[in-house]
Amino acid sequence: MAKRLIPQRRGRAGPHYLSPSHRHVDDVKLPAFDEGEGTIKDLIQAPGRTSPLAVIDFNGKTDYQLAVEGTKVGQTIVVGSDKIKAGNISTLSKIAEGTFIHNIEGKPGDGGKFIKTAGTSGTVVSRGSTVMVLMPSGAIKEFNPNCRAAIGVVAGGGRTDKPLAKAGKNYLTLRSRSKANKKTSGVAMNAVDHPHGGGSHPHVGGPNCIGRNAPTGQKAGFIAPKKRKE
Q1: pLDDT tens-place string over residues 188-228
Q2: CATH of domain 1-18+178-230
Q3: CA 201 – CA 205 distance, rounded (Å)
Q4: How far apart are CA 13 and CA 140, in angstroms?
């Protein structure tokens, strides 16, 4: 009897795969209001995140946002402003072309879904009935002009420059984000453990493109890949 693949075991959770959410600071979302001002009170480390967080006071209410390169304690953060300044939050229709942005909403009002990793940013390419944004991956994505985003580059971009030096440090670092610090390739496993396993030498042994509607136990490799554009 075959085993579940490791990604399937992670999806079912369990003590070995649950993220220690009691250590996490807060769920970072853009403010629910359209206009307002706040002051950065502190910059803190956030376990489970690659970037630090900015503690912002909006009229007596504490809010957490991703720290932005160039911001500092005491700086004013404006929501809904036309002014292009690192840390400000505005709708995409008001942000000029060529501006670096992050924490972009997928739908107006969802709080921000895209570009939240340390050191990353997107670039506004064009504005019109839709706003075109150059993503960190190099792809260009369309957004509703009423979607909001934070201006600037997410802080903490140098985190990969310093080596972790030992396996234990890597284990503890990834544990906060509920990610595995070691990975064994499927071709190195036995046939009972993975669809790519088995054989006298490491090789897939057949097509590694799997259909979207295939059973979960077979979904390993390239799932429903798109035809390459010439």
Answers
A1: 999 888 999 999 999 999 999 999 999 888 889 999 998 87
A2: 4.10.950.10
A3: 10
A4: 34
